[in-house]
Amino acid sequence: MKFKTTLTTLACAVFACTAFASTANATKIGVSMPTQSLQRWNQDGHNLKDQLEAAGYKVELLYAGDNDIPTQVSQIENLVSANCDVLVVAPIDGGALTTALAGAKDKGIPVVSYDRLIMNSDAISYYATFDNYKVGQIQGNYLVDALKLKDANTKPKNIEFFTGSIDDNNVNFFFGGAMDILKPYLESGKLVCKSGQTEKAQVATLNWSTEEAQKRMENLISSNGYGPEGTPLDAILSSNDSVANGITNALTAAGYNKDNFPVLTGQDCDKPSVKNMKRGLQTMSVFKDTRLLADQVVKMVTAIVNKTEVPVNDTKTYDNGTGIIPSYLCTPIVVTKDNLKEVLIDSGYYTEKEVK
After folding, report:
1. CA angle, 238 as apex, 40 and 91 as ends, to 5°?
2. pLDDT tens figures, 37-61
3. Is the dihedral of CA 245, 271, 157, 260 positive or negative?
4. In the chain, how many H helices and how many E strands?
């Protein structure tokens, strides 16, 4: 009798698992990423796809060429036409998808905005990202400490500013968070920007391009006389690593090395930047573990699919022009050459060989 009961229980369990798998497999998640040319987005897309598939979902992952807006619009329209159950979208241009996503709303397809907030669309259900204002604050506070700006005896320090693409809503948080920390020191004269370029539009870098950042840094070096034997350049605020890599290229070409390199910030812990930190060039990077973000998105998608409460931890900050979007903010952390092995390698994010 006991044996029969066990068999019955086991049969029910198998049936339940089969039913769950069938339901999950019938659930299609469309994922739209901006580009594969930047390591960050390549990793994000595949991390998300792997974790969604591990949860039992069918996943359609699409990359929009090299940040090509018409391609992303067309791909999203195709995902809508394919009747995906949920869309996860990291936009190239936060304001360019309103029309494409109108079809999703018409079909009742929930949309999760991924990392970058999609603007001016009432089709957005949720937003998953890192605390991007905190990212900027971390960078700003790191510069304050590294330059000892709170010390009354510290002489004025020269600094230049770089941020990302003006059409990326995250720039408002990255650059805004950093400048909220650094502006008092600019106003007091403790920080000096020789170029005078301190406004977001002046320091933006189209498509977060390494090449564009390098060109601008080269121009700043020549126009302001920066160099190891010239005008001192003590620090550079860079909002992310692809931009920081361009800055590093220009600085090393101008004769800077690990012994005289300016304090340089970054974000994402891209492999070239991790290597540069190990070499004593780039000083720090803000780590946003895409595995954590992907894990959170899977939880949000599962709650949406199951019609249960979707986990969010911010319902006040992110207004996309149509209202506040319920959001989940993951926590970023500082990485330097002193802790990169522990944070990036020991955790399995990279192998030692990948960042040698």
Report:
1. 40
2. 888 899 899 999 999 999 999 999 9
3. negative
4. 12, 12
Please state, in angstroms and rounded to a whole number, the distance separating the CA atoms of residues 12 and 46.
35
Neighbours of 176 (CB within 10 A): 16
**Residue 250 scores a pLDDT above 80:** yes
DSSP-derived letter for residue 121 is: -
All residues at 6 or more sequence positions from 48 whose CB lies less than 8 Å from its CB, including other chains: 31, 59, 61, 88, 114, 290, 294, 297, 298
**Tokens, residue 295:** 């894990």
Report yes or no: 66 and 37 within 8 Å, Cβ to Cβ.
yes
Looking at 182-336, which runs of residues are DSSP E strands? 191-192, 235-238, 263-264, 285-287, 327-330, 333-335
- 309 contacts 303 by C-beta, under 8 angstroms: yes
List, for residues 160-183, the tens digit of each pLDDT value: 999 999 989 999 999 999 999 999
Q: Is the distance from CB of 185 to CB of 158 less than 8 angstroms?
A: no
Written as six digits, the tokens of 351 are 């192998």
pLDDT digits (tens, 9 = 90+) for 317-335: 999 999 999 999 999 999 9
Tokens of 328: 């989940």
Q: Are 206 and 235 in contact (CB under 8 A)?
A: no
Predicted pLDDT at 25: 52
Q: What gap in Å lies between CA 45 and CA 344, rounded to an integer?
A: 19
Asked if the model's pLDDT at residue 315 lies above 90, the reply is yes
Q: CA 295, CA 293: separation in Å to the nearest integer? A: 5
Return left, alpha or beta for 184; rule: phi > 0 is left, psi -120 to 50 is alpha, else beta: alpha
Of 113, 111, 123, 140, the C-alpha closest to 267 is 140
Is 149:141 a contact under the CB 8 Å cutoff? Answer: no
According to DSSP, the β-strands at 285-287 and 333-335 are: antiparallel
Q: Kindly report, residue by residue over 273-292, the tens digit of the pLDDT.
A: 999 999 999 999 999 998 89
264 touches 283 (CB < 8 A) = yes
